[in-house]
Each structure stands twice: as C-alpha cells, then as structure tokens.
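Researcher: Checking consistency across runs. Here is peptidylprolyl isomerase again:
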Amino acid sequence: MVTFHTNHGDIVIKTFDDKAPETVKNFLDYCREGFYNNTIFHRVINGFMIQGGGFEPGM
C-alpha cells in the first residue's frame, strides 16, 4: 500500500505485486525518488482511476 498525502486529504493506493511485479516496482521507485512530490492530479474519475504526476502547479 502507498499513501499520497495531498492538500485534499490522503489517497491510499493498493498495489498488486503478485500480478504486476515490474509495474509495482517501477511505481514504488518513482515514489521513493519523490517523482510525485508537488505534482497535481489532472484527471479523476470517481471509483475508477486518477492520473497525475505529469504536471506541476502553475503549468
């Protein structure tokens, strides 16, 4: 599990290490490196998915 702390509350993400080990490893590496720090979520579909990490405030 990964928790993103945002200015609108926490987002808890469940990873599926057994089904997608390389994808999970890549995602966790990005998290450890701070890639998502100070980025925004630019697309949210309730109950389905969120997208973020490609934009920063002010862009």
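Researcher: Does this match what you'd expect to see?
Model: One thing to look at in this run: The chain has a mean pLDDT of 88.
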